[in-house]
Amino acid sequence: MRHRKEMNDLSDTEFDTFAKSINQMKKSGMWVNIAKVHAASEKQHYKTHGDPKTFLPWHRKFFVEVENRLQMAAIETGATALEACSVTIPYWNWALEENFPQSVTFASNRMGALSNTDEEGDVDAQFCVKDGRFGVDTANSEFGAGSNPFQAENFMQDGCSVRWGQNACSEFIGNLNGGDGSDCIFRKGNSQIFGFRQTLTYAQIVTALREHDSYKGIDNYVAMANFIEVEIHNSLHGAVGGWRAKAGTRRRTERNYGHMTSFYSPYDPIFFLHHGFIDFLWSQWQEVHVTGDWRANHNAGDMLNNLLFDGGTDQFPVTDVNMAMDIKDDDPATQEREENVCVKYHERQTNHPCSADWTRIQTCFGNLATYEKLHTVPRIKHFTSVGDVCDPLNKLHFDTDRMWLETMVQSGMMKEEDIQKVLDWERDQLHSIDKTTDFIDIGDGNSTHACDKALCFSATTMLAICDQCDSQGWALDCHCSVSSAGLTGAGQSCWESRT
Question: Which residue range(s) make up the domain with 367?
Answer without folding.
Answer: 356-497
